[in-house]
Design a protein that fits this description.
It is a single chain. With about 140 residues, the chain is α+β, with helices and mostly antiparallel strands. The chain has a domain at about 1-90. It contains five helices and three strands; from the N terminus they run H-E-E-H-E-H-H-H. It has a three-stranded mixed beta sheet, covered by helices on one side. Helix 2 packs parallel to helix 3 and helix 4 packs antiparallel against helix 5. The longest helix is centred in the last third of the chain and has 18 residues, at about 125-145. The chain starts with 9 loop residues before the first helix and ends with a helix. The mean pLDDT is about 75. Belongs to the isocitrate and isopropylmalate dehydrogenases family.
């Protein structure tokens, strides 16, 4: 399917060209970083083309432990993955967002960026890079404890 028009973002065009119609976000608590909901571990799968809205976020906030995997439409999935990130400490801690709005304000939390880098190194599956991924996660975990 070809998508044309002024509102078509580069990202959306690339997703359609590569047949990428889902976004997977893994949200989990970090040991040693205490929040209202510790030991939280869930996956949100959100489709990225269309969507609808319901009120599942109320259930997520009241009892997030009842979920392991949530499959959501695009807009609603975006709301849920941001909410879930807040449950484990906020943007930049438990999800994929590095909180770019904090640049220059001395409030940025580099946790998400460092853990994303560790995930990328592990994904490359080269022995030396896998070691650095393991080491980065281990050092970060030790820092929090």
């Amino acid at each position: 399917m070809e998508y044309k028009g002024e509102l078509a973002s580069y990202e959306m065009k690339l997703r359609r060209k590569l047949d990428l119609f889902a976004n997977v976000v893994h949200v989990n608590s970090l040991k040693g970083y205490n929040t209202r909901h510790n030991n939280l571990d869930l996956v949100i799968i959100r489709e990225q083309t269309e969507g609808e809205y319901s009120s599942l976020e109320h259930e997520l906030v009241q009892n997030p432990y009842q979920f392991d995997v949530l499959v959501m439409p695009n807009l609603y999935g975006n709301i849920i993955d941001n909410l879930a990130a807040g449950l484990v400490g906020g943007a930049g801690v438990g999800a994929r967002h590095p909180f770019a709005q904090a640049v220059g304000r001395n409030i940025a939390n580099p946790t998400a960026m460092l853990l994303s880098a560790a995930n990328m190194l592990r994904h490359l599956k080269e022995n030396k890079l896998t070691f650095f991924s393991y080491r980065l996660r281990l050092d970060f975990s030790n820092l929090l404890q």
